[in-house]
Structure formats: structure tokens, C-alpha cells
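User: I would dearly like some help making sense of a protein record. This is the protein in question:
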Amino acid sequence: MLVGRPYLNNVKVSAAILKEISGKKVRGIKFKRRKNYTRTLGFRPRYLQVKIQDLVLQ
């Protein structure tokens, strides 16, 4: 067993991208009291689903 900190040297990884997934919606709110000011920011993070096909030690 090889343990890398933070990565392994002389290892080649082959992977295939299966699909792109949207994560859960994240909301952020800015608010200023007594000024009638609110601002809502939101986004959905994007993730890639990958399949590891091959690990080769060189």
C-alpha cells in the first residue's frame, strides 16, 4: 500500500467524465438595518462525476 502526502509520485491515473451535476442551491443574504437594503445572492456549485479507469505505477 502506498500513501501519499499530499500526492504520489510516479503514478498515472486515467479517468472518464461521466456527467456534470449541479449541487444544492446555496443562498447568501446581505442586510443593512434601518436602510431598507437587502440583497440576496445565490448559486449552484457544479460537480463533475468521473469514473477512474486505470491506475498505473511507473
Observations:
- The chain has no helices and four strands.
